[in-house]
Amino acid sequence: MNETRASSPKADPFSAAQAVAAGTDFAELQVGPLGLFWNEYRPEDGACRIWHWQDAKARCLTPDGFSARSRVYEYGGGSFCLSDDGVLFVNESDQQLYHQSLADSRPVRLTSGDCRYGDLHFVCGQLLAVEEQGNQHRLVSIGLTDHQRHLLAEGADFYASPTVSPDGQRLAWIEWSRPHQPWTATRLMLAERVASGWGEPRCVAGNGEEESIQQPRFDGANRLYCLTDRGGYWQPWVESGHGLEPLPATEADHAPAPWQLGGSTWLPLDEHAYLASWTAAGFGRLGLCRSNGGNEDFTGTYSRFRSLALDEQFIYAVAASPTSPSAVIAIERQSHEVRVLAGGVAPLPVEQISRPQTLRYPSASGEAHGFFYPAMSAEEKPPLVVFIHGGPTSACYPLFDPRIQYWTQRGFAVADLNYRGSSGYGRAYRQALHLNWGIVDVEDACAVVAYLDEQNLVDGRRAFIRGGSAGGYTTLCALAFHDIFRAGASLYGVSDPIALGRATHKFEADYLDWLIGDPQRDAQRYRARTPLLHADQIRVPVIFFQGELDAVVVPQQTRDMVAALEDSGVMVQAHYYSEERHGFRKAANQAHALEHEWLFYRRVMGSEQ
């Protein structure tokens, strides 16, 4: 049934609105002679604004009516960079490039037309960017004074990370071609400056065996570095006379899957040292790594680090810990003293926060990973909510997530899973999802319930499962093909992979072939793994949340699934949001969805007592 908004129960000390309000996030730290800058997302209006930190004060630069957010490849990233006198950014509403001087708060538009831009870099009066026009992608440069556009590279399907050496003589970038994604196989390209511009590019790495390369960097001596997973993990390598050579590094991923442009999880200082973040048992580490194998640890109390930047005095990062949400921090390089510049304040007392415990458990023929959050209640074996992240080649992290705390405050334990196929555990673990989507991820989601029940940590008879987008697909498959969960929630989730393949964008056009197979040749496999075709096998209640403007999982897909469950007599509830796309950005809608998911599960448990 398509229910209207129900009345809320008695107010709880930690409400859905408070949980959503704590979702402020930060990205894209940039530091230069003018100070430190970052992009800040606030859930109350869904806008992204550039902030400037100087002289121990922060001020917002982005005027009303603007939002700094790129939509290149739909997931965006690299939405702003620094210029000599201010910032250059992509405006969300028109996807055009703007220049904003610190001396003038009025942004000046640099481009017009039907192109979108992302992954911005500024060098020698030129703005470098990935340019998207329909299904065509290129690297371009745009002059800041004359606004003239120059083509840098074209011919590949996708581009990322244009970067120029300090002496201005070397241009490097990442490119890849269909059917690959940036986490399966990419190429590191390099062009040298000539009198007429840039010479013929050459492939430095990635033209032979499949490897995923990301985050190319130059050091002060113009040496080229990158992260590549050719050794099994995304680790730093340096260009040599023989191609690439590895730097001493921890055997761990030094970056997540590059769904978005503009990531920065490592920075080479010189041939003897680099700054990097990596994962150990899912927990993030931060260190200054030296060529002799030594490591100066800057991790402190934090468990995830993003958007690394540094100057002579400080290391900057967007960081979070199990007891504090995302924050912009500055770490003094000599004393290791940490200063929180923005964010980082949890809406709960520390003693009321459920802290993540590493999960490593057997599942089918392998093992899976994740994090367990105990319920903040006295119940000996509490109910369980299993969180399934989207992507599916993505990851969850052991940090303060107000959505998870919303559940633990209400007496639920939470298992936040990095099922097989997630990033952060090496290439082999990530590749385990190849042709196995809807199988291994579902096995891992079901196996964690039995594992936690056997450990007497949860009541396995009161287990629920939830997921958004690709996580919604795993959720619906688990409900259709296994009798484990008492109910589930699909947030803009995939119920029909074939329909998704017909509607999806270029960046993911071949992703389903990698995840499941060729839609024609493997049609039977698709039929076997399509929840919509097996809706009659779902016997437990399901709640749906869907944006009406969603162009990835179109609303009709959710409506078809709801209708099929109604025809089977299953208890079903659906909520549609008229102004939301794929992933909810408005605070009121996020809070409404969170609260009504809880009400739904409470109703299910009440009806079974």
Task: Give me the secondary-structure topology.
Elements: H1 16-21, E1 25-32, E2 35-41, E3 48-54, E4 57-60, E5 80-82, E6 86-90, E7 97-101, E8 108-109, E9 116-123, E10 126-133, E11 136-143, E12 149-153, E13 158-164, E14 170-176, E15 187-194, E16 197-198, E17 202-205, E18 213-218, E19 224-228, E20 235-240, E21 243-246, E22 266-270, E23 273-280, E24 283-290, E25 295-297, E26 304-310, E27 314-321, E28 324-332, E29 338-343, E30 357-363, E31 366-373, E32 384-388, H2 402-409, E33 413-418, H3 427-431, H4 440-454, E34 463-468, H5 470-481, E35 487-491, H6 497-503, H7 511-515, H8 523-528, E36 542-547, H9 555-567, E37 572-577, H10 587-608
Parallel strand pairs: 32-33, 32-34, 34-35, 35-36, 36-37
Antiparallel strand pairs: 1-2, 2-3, 3-4, 5-6, 6-7, 7-8, 9-10, 10-11, 11-12, 13-14, 14-15, 15-16, 15-17, 18-19, 19-20, 20-21, 22-23, 23-24, 24-25, 26-27, 27-28, 28-29, 30-31, 31-33
Which short descriptors sum up this protein?
609 residues, five-stranded antiparallel β-sheet, 37 strands, eight-stranded mixed β-sheet, 2 domains, 10 helices, Neuraminidase, alpha+beta, Rossmann fold, disordered N terminus
Word description of this protein:
This protein is 16% helix and 36% strand. The protein is an alpha+beta fold and 609 residues long. It is built from ten helices and 37 strands. It is globular, with a radius of gyration of 24 Å. β30 and β31 form a beta hairpin. The protein starts with 15 loop residues before the first helix and ends with a helix. The chain has two domains: 42-279, 6 Propeller (Neuraminidase); 349-608, Alpha/Beta hydrolase fold, catalytic domain (Rossmann fold), CATH 3.40.50.
